[in-house]
Amino acid sequence: MDSPSTTNYFQGTGYLKWTPAGGVERDLGNIVECEITPTVEKLEHKTARVGTSKTDLTIYRNQAATIRLVLDEITAENLALLMMSEVVTNTDATKTIRILSESVLAGALTFTGTNDIGNVITGDFPSVSFGPSGSFSPISSDDWGQVEITGDLLATVYTDGSSDFGTMTVTDAA
Which residues make beta-bridge pairs with 19? Predict the structure, then answer.
């Protein structure tokens, strides 16, 4: 829907599925926060041909993007994303996380929007590398426990030479 339109107002909901490299896709559970942040390095050129230096060209280089997730389903697999660990299932059915035992946790993320209000957003991020960005408190007094993780969206280069960090699709509200 073209702007201006109240149907473009947005209250996002949805879920994420994570597929570790060489692994099996799984649902990350309830997501409290999900933020995608693009970053670039701005390079300005200034002309010295006039009395006061003026910017006559701006380019953006060193592109990057991150995805920040706050999860409130405390599973061994979600904690492992924060702690950079594989999950080991023990003979007694408990699961062990070996803190910082992995140097890279890479895979793909798929976001499926489920909101009733506003346009529906979906996202496909084929190359993501997770690392710790927050902390985990095993004691929660007044609020639900949470796990915060941040992933670097990594550039994917295609056979035609183009590249991107993934895609987002917008479906107009009904």
Answer: 108
